[in-house]
Every structure is written in C-alpha cells, then in structure tokens.
Design a protein that fits this description.
about 190 residues, elongated, about 75% helix, mainly alpha
Length: about 190
C-alpha cells in the first residue's frame, strides 16, 4: 500500500492525521533500531578487554557509536513529541493549536538531530572499518597467527553492525522530518 502525500498545502486536520501517523512510525522505528544498536554496542563494550585495545580507531568508534545511540534516544523522545503535537492540532479548541512556524521549527530540530546522528554513525563506522582493515592487512596470508590482537574478531564486526543500524535509524528520522517539513512548508 503506497500513501502519496498531496502536493498542495494540507489542511490542519489532514496534516495532523499524517503527522500523528508518521510520529508513531518514527517512534517505534527509532525505539526498535535504538534498542538493537544499543544491545549490540553493549555486547561490544563488555566483550572487549579495554587494557588490550590496540587501535585508537576502535575506541573512538565506540565513543561515537554511544553518541549516536544517545541521539537515537533523543529522536525517540522527539517522535513522541510529534504525536503530542498532532493531538493538539486535532483538538477542537483552536487556542491549543500550535502555530505553523512552531511545528516547522520542531520538525527542523528533528531533522538536524537525524543529520548529526548520520554523521556520528558514519564516522564511527569508518573508524571501525579502518581498524578491522588494518588488522586484516597486518596478517600475513596463509601463515598461522600467533598474535591474537591482530585477529579480526566477530565483536569487531558487531561494532560495524551497530554503527550501520544507528545510521539507518537516523536516516529514517531524516526522511520523516524532511518529508513533513516540505509538505507543510508548501
């Protein structure tokens, strides 16, 4: 089922219905992806021996991933706020309705948060990929590896998966906010 947003400026009730629906979708998508990436990140952090981290890229990647998960948590709250604003827009009391400029400002804050989260997730994944690539290039091909610090572990790949999940969550949030801003700003 494909929903097409009208190209003309929406009425308050029409926008409020779509705003509430998109707020709910955004809330649950961010919550699910945030929990998944948070669990993966916790697995990575508790599976590492921090005294033996040989790559600054992995440590920096973990820090940026934690910042990205915090940003996803903010987006969960912000998506919940979208649903509350939509409920106010659907209220019969016109005095409770937020102004169009206020709604656009809130949508833009969500968009900026998502773009920052995409940047954090991208930098975190780049750092993790560089560290994993460095480990694989340091290993001689076809020779037994006696130094366990140069072996690529599955936990290194889980960090990359957590980073990509963070990027996905923020990408969905950016699409959500940008679509609503563009539709409302017509």
């Amino acid at each position: 089922m494909r929903t097409k947003l009208p190209s003309s400026s929406p009425s308050k009730q029409e926008f409020a219905g779509v705003f509430r629906l998109f707020g709910r979708i955004s809330f649950w998508a961010h919550l699910l992806l945030g929990v998944v990436s948070g669990i993966l990140l916790l697995l990575v952090m508790f599976s590492r021996n921090f005294s033996e981290i040989n790559s600054a890229f992995i440590g920096f990647g973990i820090f940026l991933a934690v910042c990205g998960v915090v940003a996803v948590g903010f987006r969960v709250f912000w998506a919940y706020r979208y649903t509350r604003l939509a409920k106010l827009l659907q209220s019969p009391d016109k005095n409770l309705h937020p102004k169009k400029e206020e709604v656009i400002k809130i949508l833009r804050i969500g968009l900026i948060t998502s773009l920052l989260g995409i940047g954090l997730g991208f930098l975190a994944s780049e750092g993790a990929v560089i560290a994993v690539l460095g480990k694989t290039l340091a290993q001689p091909q076809g020779v037994a590896v006696y130094n366990p610090e140069t072996v690529v572990r599955s936990i290194d790949l889980l960090l990359i998966l957590a980073d990509v999940t963070i990027i996905g969550a923020h990408f969905l949030g950016a699409i959500n906010s940008l679509g609503l801003v563009e539709w409302l700003d017509n």
